[in-house]
Amino acid sequence: xxxxxxxxxxxxxxxxxxxxxxxxxxxxxxxxxxxxxxxxxxxxxxxxxxxxxxxxxxxxxxxxxxxxxxxxxxxxxxxxxxxxxxxxxxxxxxxxxxxxxxxxxxxxxxxxxxxxxxxxxxxxxxxxxxxxxxxxxxxxxxxxxxxxxxxxxxxxxxxxxxxxxxxxxxxxxxxxxxxxxxxxxxxxxxxxxxxxxxxxxxxxxxxxxxxxxxxxxxxxxxxxxxxxxxxxxxxxxxxxxxxxxxxxxxxxxxxxxxxxxxxxxxxxxxxxxxxxxxxxxxxxxxxxxxxxxxxxxxxxxxxxxxxxxxxxxxxxxxxxxxxxxxxxxxxxxxxxxxxxxxxxxxxxxxxxxxxxxxxxxxxxxxxxxxxxxxxxxxxxxxxxxxxxxxxxxxxxxxxxxxxxxxxxxxxxxxxxxxxxxxxxxxxxxxxxxxxxxxxxxxxxxxxxxxxxxxxxxxxxxxxxxxxxxxxxxxxxxxxxxxxxxxxxxxxxxxxxxxxxxxxxxxxxxxxxxxxxxxxxxxxxxxxxxxxxxxxxxxxxxxxxxxxxxxxxxxxxxxxxxxxxxxxxxxxxxxxxxxxxxxxxxxxxxxxxxxxxxxxxxxxxxxxxxxxxxxxxxxxxxxxxxxxxxxxxxxxxxxxxxxxxxxxxxxxxxxxxxxxxxxxxxxxxxxxxxxxxxxxxxxxxxxxxxxxxxxxxxxxxxxxxxxxxxxxxxxxxxxxxxxxxxxxxxxxxxxxxxxxxxxxxxxxxxxxxxxxxxxxxxxxxxxxxxxxxxxxxxxxxxxxxxxxxxxxxxxxxxxxxxxxxxxxxxxxxxxxxxxxxxxxxxxxxxxxxxxxxxxxxxxxxxxxxxxxxxxxxxxxxxxxxxxxxxxxxxxxxxxxxxxxxxxxxxxxxxxxxxxxxxxxxxxxxxxxxxxxxxxxxxxxxxxxxxxxxxxxxxxxxxxxxxxxxxxxxxxxxxxxxxxxxxxxxxxxxxxxxxxxxxxxxxxxxxxxxxxxxxxxxxxxxxxxxxxxxxxxxxxxxxxxxxxxxxxxxxxxxxxxxxxxxxxxxxxxxxxxxxxxxxxxxxxxxxxxxxxxxxxxxxxxxxxxxxxxxxxxxxxxxxxxxxxxxxxxxxxxxxxxxxxxxxxxxxxxxxxxxxxxxxxxxxxxxxxxxxxxxxxxxxxxxxxxxxxxxxxxxxxxxxxxxxxxxxxxxxxxxxxxxxxxxxxxxxxxxxxxxxxxxxxxxxxxxxxxxxxxxxxxxxxxxxxxxxxxxxxxxxxxxxxxxxxxxxxxxxxxxxxxxxxxxxxxxxxxxxxxxxxxxxxxxxxxxxxxxxxxxxxxxxxxxxxxxxxxxxxxxxxxxxxxxxxxxxxxxxxxxxxxxxxxxxxxxxxxxxxxxxxxxxxxxxxxxxxxxxxxxxxxxxxxxxxxxxxxxxxxxxxxxxxxxxxxxxxxxxxxxxxxxxxxxxxxxxxxxxxxxxxxxxxxxxxxxxxxxxxxxxxxxxxxxxxxxxxxxxxxxxxxxxxxxx
Length: 1505
Prior knowledge:
Elements lengths: L23 H28 L18 H27 L6 H27 L6 H24 L6 H27 L14 H4 L12 H6 L4 H9 L4 H4 L8 H18 L8 H6 L1 H47 L2 H5 L5 H21 L2 H20 L1 H47 L1 H7 L2 H51 L6 H42 L18 H5 L15 H9 L14 E11 L5 E11 L3 E5 L6 H9 L3 E9 L19 H6 L4 E8 L8 E2 H6 L6 H10 L3 H6 L7 E2 L8 H14 L2 E7 L7 H18 L3 E5 L11 E6 L2 E6 L1 H7 L1 H21 L4 H36 L3 H8 L3 H10 L2 H29 L10 H50 L3 H6 L2 H43 L3 H46 L1 H7 L2 H51 L3 H42 L25 E9 L6 E10 L4 E6 L5 H8 L4 E9 L2 E2 L5 H6 L2 E3 L8 E2 H5 L7 H10 L3 H6 L7 E2 L8 H14 L4 E5 L7 H13 L5 E5 L11 E6 L2 E6 L1 H6 L4 H9 L1
Helix pairs in contact: 1-3, 1-4, 2-3, 2-5, 4-5, 8-38, 10-12, 12-14, 12-40, 14-19, 14-38, 15-16, 15-19, 16-18, 16-19, 16-37, 18-19, 18-35, 19-41, 21-40, 25-27, 25-28, 33-35, 33-41, 34-35, 34-37, 34-41, 35-37, 35-41, 37-41, 38-40, 38-41, 40-41, 45-47
């Protein structure tokens, strides 16, 4: 058959006698002209443009959309493409009814489709390269197309073509579309004036696009990229090559930043507070009856539905994130203004504030995510029921009723779940507390062989936790079961009712349409219960937030104004404030200040210049209305040192806080004198571009900020250096002077990275004295004219106090002529003071110089004198107690293992890196993209093989039954209905019976599978925790020295929580979605084998999508987690250091930091959700392709209708479950990390607990005598480390008192550990009473010796439990021990006596008392050998004397080995051993050693005198 444009079966086709335009074929040909014209013009331009990318205007992202009507144009073009597709389809269908090919029916339409596609591609390129003049081509095209189509439409009207004809409709729609596009084009010319006008409009890209740092392009890209997240491709693919870090995701666009949203929320909140959106034509019906047309329409409907769904998800996510950012900023600003009494009186605890930040804001955010469901769900349910009723009549209502009746059960289960989760949380908190105690006191537990007692107590709590986890698991599995079973039950009820109430048999069309409707109905009902629960939670959260935002604030301290910044109102009038809330030229914090601070009346009385601060008639309270300080009249002279003295609790610190404005002023006032103008030139902050040189200029000090060191030291989570300079510019000389004055240098040298080491909550733990010195250094370093130091000497020993007084205070501060107010107990410094304020019971007792007081108040002066004498005597005693060296020693001990470990790790990493470089990244990539199957297998098997087998078997069975139900339905409905109706009834009964049995089996199996998965998860969790706990408790002591405590605790908290609660549901969901997808694909392939061919490319696409997504998602998830922690820490840190921040006037700097942290966390979360959308859009489109191929293949195969329905039903379920497979895979991969971490601990070496001797072979009362022989002993901590003791030989007679001394690191403590086999004895031996200790079981050895450690450790529980956890002793024995330790009277006075409670770490007793308890504990264990490891290092002289006495009397008949911190404690010993570098240097009685003038011991004693 020859091809002809107008067909060759009609001679009149080319006849134009009636006029050219009356010929249909000619009009169609005319319609080709505009399309061809467009292609001819645009192709060269496109190719030239694409060939030379350089012509583009330089902006960082070629996503700048600046032509007006941009989105409208995209929508119109998509509609145009769809209409063209319809036109093509109509043309082809009409053509099949002709005798010969009529090209004119569909060729113009195809050309139109091509032209429309080209037009949008062309437009996109013109727009991003910003050449508006080239848009003229499109303008001409729209005009021509509009005219030619109008001609065609007019021609149809003249011919009287009826409106019901499809071709007439299509032409009419096309005319409208071309007209609209033409209007859009005219509008672009009108606005941009690029042609026909003299002066074209100049445009600039939005600020975000000029900023290289903004990488989140969703708001800026074109419609197609917005819908499919095309712009995310680069990020997700690059994640494969290197991990996504914060740099890769850049910063938030301005509109989403916390500050922008905070301003909006604040306004709204303030408003709310004020009160309290001739041819054969084809009719439309015939066209829609064409099966292929229906298949394509189904495909397009799916694509549209999914695109809109994902877009709505994105909008809710973005809104939620914006709200959270704004709320966080609001909470933070409130924290900065909280009144101090609120925090100290416990009305607002830190815990509550942390909850607001971590929980309540997230609750509101989640509610916003789910909120659209509140109105979408009811609509969906009502529509579903109506459609079902149309299909099946009354019987549909039966099924719907089943669903509606079972929905409340879902809600009930959901509430139960929340309860179970709460009780689980309580138990796990308790378990963590116990675990934490064990890990902190692990050394003591091992030395006393008490590990198992404590281990059992943790296991008991764990059992309770597991019980509540069981209820949790049960309810989870019930919820999963309901979800799976409800649709089966509903379908069963409906079809059985239908079979018995209707005469006509069930048709496949009805059956499968209603099946998919039921599936659609279940989801909203299930979701609705969740949404309602979230709504309730959100309401509670709003109440809590409101309560917090309305709580008491600190008064506005107008007397210390600082900067009269613009009032908030006047700020509103600034033009462009909202669109550009951020001006890049000026650092953000100024702007924040200008928003925040109301104008302060700067009423500063001009006074005599030598008074810096004056308080007149002051009455101050801590918010209770009772005056804590009354009748205060004081003055603080400028540039001089004022000391405030008085007894404990007389209101010295309160006075400082009252001056700073932290207390409530009942009456009276505080005047701050005005500084000379030259001194007011700098603000509290230095703008970013100020250089070092300007630092000198700004020496004229920042006046209204007060450098304040609080009594309780407060550190930031930052480096030592950042803690000291605290936001001021860095000046090397000043910094050095300050660190020297506070003698911090030796401590800094001990830290692994010097002053760049992180300290604070998450950093390295420093001791009290070290923390205090850092805080004092911060106050000295700040360039303020007034310095307040609140008892800076309390945690310092005498050398440091003197040094600080001389160097720091007298030299550094006085040279600078800064005004200093010093609160102190150390009266020996009074002579240095220029002005003294003596306080008593909240009143000022005296004020004046020391001379004044000496002359006026002789009594007070004498009182001070006696106190000073007493302090001097203590000093002499105290000279020996060098607390600092001790602190440094503890720090060194803490650092030593870390250093050795980090060195080892560094070496390992270097080796690994070298290897990796050979494989150039490929291995890393493999590791990053590989699923951790090995870990998964370990996890599954830790639940036991029987359960694993049961789970797999029941899962497979359940899915087979579900497929069988649908298969049965297909055969039942597609039976040949034309059979005689003889046995129709029997047939019906038979079919219904089988259908019911299968459905019942399906429901039961749903329950079984959901239970087995949860059960298996529980068993696995139980076993993993049990093994982990036992492994850790039996680990060698070296492991605890080298592993940070936080790391071990993390395994017990975060990781255990993931294994307990998160892995089982993920696993369940993953197996369910995977099996559903597989059974669906199997079913479709069974019905239409050709489908398998189409499946190959789809499968490959799916593989790559999931592979790329998993890697990127894991990184983004980690980023989200890691950016959340600093944010929470910053909040709790601020709440703790409120007074300091406010005294320094650094609120704005901290706000700025909070905004940065919030934005960082939000951008990570945004990218994570965008990545999820990216995945879902792609899997949804894949699902739509599967539906299309399934539909087309089943039509071409000409299957019977039942199986077509079955295939389509399954293809539709795939679209729902594909993205779940990938999401769950990604989640599982992240969660398996927890199992991996736990396993890494499980492979650790344990201590060797079994000895060669059986415990029964050891005499009951061994060691009776207490004779110790040390023969050639060599000891090391690990077999790859150097020995710490080398060939030590010694003999100790029974009952001898032996002292061991030596410098730090000489091996004294290692020797004491060797007695307990806590270290590796690799040569030589220790024989006690004739038994070589290496042959004893560890439990026996350690339970027969006693030791008193340097750090006194008490556990929470009763006093009885602390003295004797094994409950072996009588009360008399315990009282006796307490009496010996001089504690009897104190314990008797406690409520409950021996059963009085000890708080965690024994915090309710002083250090000295704790040490005495440890002594009593050692006495309770009647052992003939006692080892004291520097037991007197951390206690005062009085307690030490008691200890010495007790050791001499109560332990007279026992062997005592004392490791001495101060040499004078062992002068009375029978034998002294002096050690150096692991060797014994001197070994004799103290008298003999002292007589050797040049001996080491003698030199020690001289140094110690």
